[in-house]
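In the current project phase, our protein records have gained a structure token line. A sample record follows, to show the layout:
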Amino acid sequence: TWGGFCDESANAAAGEAYYGGRVQVIGEPGALYSQVHSVDANSLFPAMMLRPYPDISKVRQVAPTIQNLEAILNDPDRLCWANVRLEGGERSPRFLPNTNDEGRRDWDSLVFDGWACEPEIRHALENGYELVQLRGLYCAYTIEPFSAFVRSFYQLRLEYQGANDPREFAIKIVLNSLYGRFGMRDICMRIDQPEKVGEILEAGEWVEEYELNFYDGHGGRWPYLEEIEPSKKANSNWFGFASFVTSYARVELARVIAAAG
């Protein structure tokens, strides 16, 4: 865990920049399309894990000034994450992980407002985006914590592939899922079994412990209860790793999309 290594706010800020991978529907959601072409980056997350990452033991909060941000971006031994507002130009690529009014990810906006990691901040500034606001800034010295792990297991995977050994699939899962361990969040348990939901509601003492919601929205036919306070606590996380893995990957994917036209 990050406790004892850096301030809680640094980990929380990095958590705000953890948006996951880029999944985007190019077309009308729910429509059927024929002759669809799919391009997949082989082992993208493990490849990104070979890059530098912020050292949990050497994190600093610095004044959010343009001068400080530029100094960190020009320092190969430091990485940053920042609370920014970025606005793109007419020819800027649309790649930043925005969220629309419905709470869904929106990859088509030229305006980004929130916490972002250095790979995306740098790529945005190099491609016509203007830094309109800078509201928060953390930095850390770099380490390469995953290089030996990735190289060792990837070599083992190649050996298993060559021997037609089914254990190759297990190695693939390990390589692609390790980063997510550092992005674990506290979980609010959900109760959606009709009998159990009915029992709790009838007891009448659920208001301070649960929120009542419906899977079908205003239809009100499919209720579920969700804890207000999470009962399942993450026993380890450092969003500085998880957020940067996915940030690196989204930038790499943006470059591929741009190259494909």
